[in-house]
Design a protein that fits this description.
InterPro entries: AAA+_ATPase, ABC2_TM, ABC_transporter-like_ATP-bd, ABC_transporter-like_CS, ABCG_transporters, P-loop_NTPase
Organism: Pycnococcus provasolii
CATH superfamily of the largest domain: P-loop containing nucleotide triphosphate hydrolases
Distance between the termini: 32 Å
Keywords: ATP-binding, Membrane, Nucleotide-binding, Transmembrane, Transmembrane helix, Transport
Protein name: ABC transporter domain-containing protein
Shape: elongated
Strand content: 5-15%
CATH architecture of the largest domain: 3-Layer(aba) Sandwich
Helix content: 40-55%
Number of strands: 10
Low-confidence stretches: 1-56, 87-108, 207-213, 419-426
Main location: membrane
Radius of gyration: 33 Å
Length: about 700
């Protein structure tokens, strides 16, 4: 971000033209040249004036640089307390009794709480424009350190982490980004759509709009959209994803892009806002040697061009990648720092610690460092050398780092380049969150053709079979047969909600990462979007099922709309209950077991097969918590007790009593079902918010 300013005019002609973007970036050799041309485009994240006539000034770019420092950062976990019992020798016990002539305890019990140190105190810094690689064996505390530095660690830790010499504040997140170890991507989106989704929620362009005109035809609105596409396209080029931009990401059920491309897409999501500092946990995990080299070349070029800083957890880098790091921080197997410095100084350091250079070891230098850090005696030797030669200098350097400007002061001074503060815990306004989530959710629904075909086909078949089972039953005077049809229809439509349970469970990890990790959106926006999708999905599914079953069974057309509405409300009520179930557990087996248990109990008290005439009073109250009861009672009251029901279809008072029917349930039942939906949807949101999707750091 500190390179000289470049004159840029943000006109339509400066934005990318689809016809000029046909070249493909397929190998790592194209990254650096492509980045040189992308530099000017990415600088547009921070234009100098609201009139959009020049690129950022050097003063502003300098202000955007973040110098990360940390001092004596440590982390430990409590382990199960141990109980120690001390026994007194029997002869001493008898002797003491004879001397004191009073009873004496033969044993004493002491409970001691212990803590296991995961990460021992470590200090260091990440200057602007550098890449810090954090290495070490598995379980040495690498991920714990990166979570602490990025502010994602919620459990207590010790030490201090400073940004430009100041503690993190509410504004720091605008300068920082995080790339997780896993690739949580939407399988039914294309590469470009996934990146645009994140851009809409994280990258703000409100500084381009001088007025309040929200007309989509306004030139500024169109220019903002093109500028956003411009930045996304350039980032795809930089990371070698341009040639797969329109390919579906894919997943377990749908084939898509390769693992290396998925990892680079995850990295692109972290870079889409042009952060000053990026944290990455195992960003090369699962990548081939070529893909790792491609990704690191891109990061190194960005660090040099924009003075971006990177703190990355790396497991076993190849030597070409190893030399790209500005500095390396290596931990031993027990969480002690054993090396910190430039990669070029490692050989000399190992020799000083008693491990002289071996012939032809340069290519295996990272592996040798990890081997030494994983063994007991070699790591102890490295630790002694580190504490005597490196640790004092590092601590002194961190202690005397000059304090720069806090992230808060930077944002306030250059406020026109930043989004206005939104609701805490989110990156964009509620409406923008809901709009982006709706766009993604509808794409997921439409593109999951296999699920759509199975869902609608099964709905149609079940509707036909149910209608044939009660063929023209309305034309008869058989009240029991008609009641049976209404009960089976309400039960079947409600259980269609089971079809969506696996999808909800499988998306919990993505929700936890996006909502509570990246803070792309809030819990309410996510839940409302899912509720809207569920509403329209239920209407289409229930409509197909009910229109076939209803008319084959011979019921009158004038009451079909009421029948459809009650069926849909019954579906939504059960769907809302299952939303609470899915929010409370983390796997399909537990969700299915808990859902089956609840629905079995509730379906027993349905108002048809069991009612107050046959159920004991002390368990009869359960029916008032059952959506099945309100669905059936509403339908039965409307079709048997309503004032406009033909005489041949009306039932006697005795028959109504046997079914526990009440005429007011025709309107009261739907009201209760609506309340049921609202209450359980709110409970589901609260559970999701409190449990953070079942994932805690």
């Amino acid at each position: 971000m500190s390179s000289s300013p470049v004159e840029v005019s943000v006109n339509d002609d400066d934005l990318p033209v689809e016809g000029n973007q046909d070249e493909e970036v397929e190998d790592s050799s194209n990254v650096v040249p492509t980045l040189a041309s992308a530099h000017d485009a990415m600088r547009l994240f921070y234009p100098e004036e609201r009139q959009r006539e020049t690129a950022p000034s050097e003063e502003f770019e300098k202000a955007m640089e973040i110098h990360l420092s940390f001092a004596d950062v440590a982390f430990d976990l409590p382990i199960k307390p141990t109980t120690t019992t001390t026994s007194t020798p029997l002869c001493c016990c008898f002797r003491r009794c004879r001397q004191q002539k009073q009873p004496s305890a033969a044993t004493s019990t002491t409970t001691m709480a212990k803590r296991k140190t995961i990460l021992h105190p470590v200090s260091g810094s990440v200057p602007p424009g550098t890449i810090l690689a954090i290495m070490g064996p598995s379980g040495c505390g690498k991920s714990s350190l990166i979570d602490i530095l990025s502010g994602r660690k919620t459990t207590p830790w010790r030490g201090s982490v400073l940004y430009n010499g100041h503690p993190a504040d509410d504004w720091t997140s605008r300068f920082v980004s995080y790339v997780s170890q896993g690739d949580l991507l939407c399988a039914t989106l294309t590469v470009r759509e996934e990146l645009m989704f994140v851009s809409h929620l994280k990258a703000d362009y409100s500084y381009l709009n001088d007025g309040d005109n929200n007309d989509d035809e306004d030139p500024i609105i169109r220019r903002v959209a093109k500028l956003r596409e411009h930045h996304v396209d350039m980032l795809l080029r930089v990371l070698g994803l341009w040639h797969v931009r329109d390919s579906l990401i894919g997943g377990e059920k749908k084939r898509g892009i390769s693992g290396g491309q998925r990892r680079r897409l995850t990295l692109a999501k972290g870079l889409v806002t042009g952060p000053s500092l990026l944290f990455g946990d195992e960003i090369t995990s699962g990548l081939s040697a070529t893909d790792s080299l491609l990704a690191l070349r891109a990061l190194r070029s960005m660090a040099a061009a924009f003075k971006m800083s990177f703190a990355l957890v790396i497991h076993q880098p190849r030597i070409e990648v190893f030399w790209m790091f500005s500095s390396v921080l290596c931990f031993s197997y027990n969480g002690h720092a054993v090396y910190q410095g430039e990669p070029s100084l490692l050989v000399e350091y190992l020799s000083t610690a008693g491990f002289p250079r071996k012939p032809d070891e340069e290519a295996a230098l990272p592996d040798r460092l990890l081997d030494l850090a994983s063994a007991n005696e070699p790591s102890a030797a490295l630790l002694r050398t580190y504490e005597s030669q490196i640790a004092p200098d590092v601590k002194d350097k961190v202690k005397h780092l000059p304090a720069g400007r806090s992230t808060r002061s930077i944002v306030l001074e250059h406020s026109k380049f930043f989004a206005q503060p939104h609701t805490p815990g989110s990156s964009s306004p509620f409406i923008a969150q809901l709009r982006s989530l709706q766009s993604r959710d509808w794409r997921q629904v439409v593109r999951d053709t296999e699920f759509l075909v199975v869902n609608y086909a099964s709905s149609a078949i079940i509707g036909v079979v149910l209608g044939l089972a009660f063929f023209q039953t309305r034309s008869t005077n058989n009240v029991f047969a008609q009641s049976s049809f209404l009960f089976m229809a309400s039960l079947t439509s409600a259980l269609f909600s089971f079809n969506y349970l696996p999808t909800v469970i499988s998306e919990k990890a993505m929700y936890a990462a996006e909502c509570h990790g990246e803070k792309l959106y809030g819990s309410w926006a996510y839940s409302l979007s899912k509720a809207i999708i569920s509403l329209f999905s239920s209407l289409s599914t229930i409509f197909l099922f009910s229109i076939l079953a209803y008319f084959i069974a011979g019921f009158e057309a004038r009451r079909y709309v009421y029948f459809l509405v009650v069926q849909a409300l019954g579906f939504l009520a059960i769907d809302s209950l299952l939303a609470v179930v899915s929010a409370s557990v983390n796997d399909h087996e537990s969700a299915n077991t808990l859902a089956a248990f609840l629905l079995t109990i509730l379906s027993l008290f349905n108002g048809f097969t069991s009612n107050e005439e046959i159920v004991p009073v002390w368990v009869f109250w359960i029916q008032y918590a059952s959506p099945f009861f309100y669905t059936f009672s509403s339908l039965a009251s409307a079709f048997f007790l309503a004032s406009d029901v033909p005489a041949e279809h009306r039932i006697t008072d005795a028959q109504a009593k046997s079914l526990s029917l009440d005429a007011k349930m025709e309107w009261l039942g739907p009201v209760v079902l609506v309340a049921y939906v609202l209450v359980f949807r709110c409970i589901a949101v609260l559970v999701m918010h409190v449990t953070k999707g079942g994932v805690a750091k």
